[in-house]
Design goal:
This protein is α+β, with helices and mostly antiparallel strands and 65 residues long. The protein has a single domain, classed as Macrophage Migration Inhibitory Factor, CATH 3.30.429.10. Helices cover 42% and strands 25% of the residues. It has 2 helices and 4 strands; from the N terminus they run E-H-E-E-E-H. The chain is elongated and about 45 Å long. The relative contact order is 0.23.
Length: 65
């Protein structure tokens, strides 16, 4: 049972569907295993749960502009 995990910011259902399909297709082709063998987990996090350069992500991104 291969397991693929992605951590990301909030995504739409359409984006999740595309990610799951794409990850599964590429992994299946690369490893020569059936798509049904793969499990995909998308873990969403709020931007304020991320830190970059010692700052919360929203503040870091605002300062980059």
């Amino acid at each position: 049972m291969p397991f693929i995990e992605m951590k990301t910011a909030k995504t739409t259902t359409e984006q999740k569907e595309k990610l799951v399909e794409g990850f599964t297709r590429v992994a299946s082709e690369t490893l020569g295993m059936p798509a049904s063998a793969f499990y995909v987990l998308i873990e969403e996090n709020e931007p304020e749960n991320w830190g970059v350069g010692g700052k919360l992500l929203p503040k870091f991104m605002a300062e980059k502009k």
